[in-house]
Amino acid sequence: MLFPKFYNKRFKHITVLISLAICTLIILNGYLSHDTNQVKIENEAIIQFKASANRYNPKQMTYVVFQYLTAFNKKKHTNHPLTSNIGGDFGIWFHWDDWVDLSAGNTKLNQVRKQHPSGGCPNNIQRYGAFSGFPFESMRSKITRSKVDLYCNQEVPKRIVIATDKSFVELPVVGEKRFVESKQSKKNTKNLSQEDKDSKEFQDSDDYHMMFGYKNFKKFEKEIDIEYSDFIFNIKDEIVRLKEKWNRRYIWVLEKKYLDMLEWANHLIDFSGSNEYFKNPWKFKDSLTSKIHAYAYPFYQRSLTDGERQSIAQHMIQTWFQFAQANGLKSWLGDSSLLGWSYNGIDLPWSLNIDIHMPIRQLDRLGRDFNKTLLIENPRFGNGKYYLEVSPTYGKQAIKSDSIEARLVDINSGYSIEIKSLMFHSDVQPPKKFWKHLANSDEKYEAVATHTKDWEWQNLRDTIPIRHTYFEGTSVYIPHNVTRYLSNIYKDKFINATYIGDYNYQRDLRLWVPNDVCNTSPKNFRFINKDDYSQLSLKGACNKESLKDEYQITEKLTTRHRELNSNIDKAKDYDPNQLKDLPIMRKDVWEYFNDIVHRTVDHTNWYNGVSSN
Ligand SMILES: *[C@@H]1O[C@H](CO)[C@@H](O)[C@H](O)[C@H]1NC(C)=O
Ligand SMILES: *[C@@H]1O[C@H](CO)[C@@H](O)[C@H](O)[C@H]1NC(C)=O
Ligand SMILES: *[C@@H]1O[C@H](CO)[C@@H](O)[C@H](O)[C@H]1NC(C)=O
Ligand SMILES: *[C@@H]1O[C@H](CO)[C@@H](O)[C@H](O)[C@H]1NC(C)=O
């Protein structure tokens, strides 16, 4: 009955229009090859960088925070009152406008900044930002809106955690206030080489530990075992347990807050329908040029090139795993990050995020102790600032697409580490193919099937104990049996592939190379030197500087991977504390553009020539 009703003249016209539109999209997509896309994105990035360079410098707030920390230290010795614009005796002020480049929202925000220098936001602007953008507005207005949203509506972090040389220092955030306008003069604070000095003075001083919360770095272990009970979490049991405690004895303030969150989450999931907790900028635009669905709203600014994503990833991975290790949180690489590792020990160049898995109980602790934490990369290595958010919905199975339970977002790009948990549910059975891998009835009987919220099933025997390894040159953990773990997620054809999407794997370079750079290894000798394979000749790099650059960055990383992991399920014997992490060889994103704009480099390259060790 439905069909004839729709089949009228108007409907015909619409069908024609839609098909035309789809064809145009497909053709356009074909024109914009990977390579030209990279150039286009980079040119746009440079224009944006120049436009906001006057207002925004990521080193500035790091500098201010280290200044504050140093002043705090001195105060202890002299008993002078603390004079700092950024904070007082109990912590620091925070406003997103100081920490993120919000230039994209200037059309709305300039006026607001003038009228409310310390950070307030009038109701109409607030509503403009909060309005959940409808699918058909342009990307530009969506980004403007997101920046206004960040300015006006996003809660401030609870704390800032700063990576120093020896430990993570925790600074509480006491409230919301803008810093930028209150400083004496913009001009004379521009000398940021002072930052290094302050950071060094602070890092070298041993007694700052007395003043702030801190966690010393911990050594990485070869293997970490995890209790099976860490994979069990039942939200209703937790609620009853807390209520019992409350009824019979007392409840701590933090426990009460936790109980409130659980109660709320328990309802939220039932009523959220198809809504995901974490927001992404736009899904429909993916087919055109940029795969932006994976980026985090409201932090997303623009598309990123492969080089940018890989740089952000490398810096972020190091900070995350050091942070997790220092706090005794157990996590490991999953999904596409693990797949990337299995080939050459580095991330897949087209990957849109980092995938981390952890047991549900560990995630619960992450949420309780660190929800709304801004993590700051050690300024010696880069300008990374990452915001950790944990969804309240982790405690309960929701719709399949709401599987990301926590994310660590690079606040200047929206690129993120996506964290999923593994949990055990006695009342849900794994699908048939889960059992297929198990050889005999004993193995089947012993299996403990855990799953993520999007129903990836893993046997705990393949998962734990988790193992130490190097990813992008930095210490991380991976599941016990990588082959099994991956084959539970991906079809076999991905696990030892030569072509995936627009890339081909070149064994001689141990690299994924875009097909439009060259779609197979050239026959000629590819290196500059007969007996030194550390540098490609330009011809060997298919006449692309970008490939030469990437090889220079990754050669040591992938060599180590090959030496240790010729069997990806069983590494050669090594001591993670003897075999140090490799230096971060991907240049910080902001430095990269700064170098180009100030012409300190001849051509664009990501290789961070100066070793950071
Ligand atoms: C910046 O500060 C450093 C260290 O305090 C100093 O050596 C340098 O001369 C200053 N540069 C400028 C341009 O003021
Ligand atoms: C984390 O913080 C956000 C923002 O305040 C809140 O909505 C969410 O429920 C918190 N998550 C957890 C696990 O407490
Ligand atoms: C990993 O799993 C494979 C089967 O996929 C098995 O052959 C191998 O023995 C396992 N390795 C380890 C170290 O458990
Ligand atoms: C993957 O493919 C290569 C070359 O085809 C082969 O040498 C290697 O053994 C394969 N590895 C696995 C794990 O199948």
TrEMBL record:
Identify the residues that the record assigns to the LicD/FKTN/FKRP nucleotidyltransferase domain, covering every copy.
324-446
Transmembrane segments in this chain: where? 12-32
GO BP, one example? Answer: glycoprotein metabolic process
Q: Has the keyword Transmembrane been applied to this entry?
A: yes
Arranged from A to Z, the UniProt key words for this protein are: Membrane, Transmembrane, Transmembrane helix
- Quick check: keyword Transmembrane in the entry? yes
Question: What protein is this chain from?
Answer: LicD/FKTN/FKRP nucleotidyltransferase domain-containing protein
